[in-house]
What we know:
Elements: H1 7-23, H2 33-49, H3 69-81, H4 90-99, H5 102-114, E1 119-122, E2 138-144, E3 147-156, E4 167-173, E5 184-190, E6 196-201, E7 210-221, E8 225-226, H6 232-244, H7 251-268, H8 275-303, H9 312-334, H10 336-340, H11 345-354, H12 362-373
Parallel strand pairs: 1-4
Antiparallel strand pairs: 2-3, 3-7, 4-5, 5-8, 6-7
Amino acid sequence: MDFRDSPEEAEFRADLRRWLETNARDVRIPDDPAERARAQNRFHQRLYEAGYIALSFPSEYGGHGKPPTYEAILNEELAGFGAPPIEGVGHMSNALLLFGTDDQRRTLLPGLLSGATQWCQGFSEPGAGSDLAGLTTRADLVQVDGAPHFRINGQKIWTSFAATADMCFLLCRTEPDAPKHQGISILLVPMTTPGVEPRRIVNAARNTEFAEVFFTDALVPASCLLGQRGQGWAIANQLLAYERGPSDVNFIARIGTYLQSLEQDLASGRLPDDDMSRRRVGEAYVELRALQLKVQRSLTDRVHGALPGAEGSIDKLLLTRADQCIGHAVMDLRGADAVLAEDLSWDVYVWSRASSIYGGTQQIQRNIVAQRVLGLPRH
Ligand SMILES: Cc1cc2nc3c(=O)[nH]c(=O)nc-3n(C[C@H](O)[C@H](O)[C@H](O)COP(=O)(O)OP(=O)(O)OC[C@H]3O[C@@H](n4cnc5c(N)ncnc54)[C@H](O)[C@@H]3O)c2cc1C
């Protein structure tokens, strides 16, 4: 691997740095969770308007048609600059690009990429998290006014951003009599559909990002189906493979921002500049760098045409290590201040705990690596 930028990449990186200097220097991350989500969305839209989002997506859908390495450059620069985290939409956008009809791509991708349309991902259920294929939310094909529709009934949980989302990427059971992995489909459901009711959950980070979502006889046209009936399990796995490769969800940028804030604490004397502090910040830097290099390796495969697969679980495990290394350092070094301060310290710590759960737990990632990457026996 040659990690040096090509001349074009170097020029792109320099332009992006100049843009960040001018446009992101004073962008603050508000403490209030609702305000923070709005600020994050505004920053995402500004980056999009400036041409820095959807870099590897085809231009007809609002992208720039560049190789995936440009996504890595964006992530590195946002992280290095300490810019506000931006919305990670690559996992859903890539799934829509791969499996959507022309009409679905044309109508839905530009809004998803630009941040103008907010999406949530309705996969987990109270009885189906790690065992996702055990989901019971049903979508039955029915005729309404002579036209085919799906009637949806069931419940999702831990759905991030569901209460503010415009659309839901919904995993549901359309063929109840088929074997469990084969009876699942994906529907793209407008959240304004009558019978769709999100109820907010306050999480440990004190915000209401999560919701339960209840579906009661919610009717959507059959054209909301993504891919084929019964193809949902394959689509969900492809989407999760993108989600576990952190460049698609911008986690590297987020972790880099936290690392920068720790470094600033050291430089400003807010943290004692002693061996312990320097060692913890150094360890966090090393974990983040290991993650960045692994992600670059995964992106190299993508440049050569490979879709993300089971190997993405290694990226996810490294992401968890980097995130928790920084989260624990914040907590240990700032001590009681981390809990009491009016800044994001507590959230950094709590979110780092969540990274071994979202997108599939740490244990599930290890199972995937053992069985599907290393080829070890199941039992
Ligand atoms: C911050 C955050 C955001 C999230 N956002 C979303 C979202 O937007 N949409 C969505 O659908 N979901 C979302 N989730 C839910 C997440 O996907 C699930 O919490 C996760 O898949 C685990 O499922 P569970 O909570 O039901 O735990 P369970 O599956 O009940 O697992 C409990 C414990 O048992 C272990 N375990 C289970 N099965 C095995 C096994 N076979 N081998 C070894 N250990 C096992 C797990 O590792 C875990 O430690 C989010 C979660 C978090 C924390």
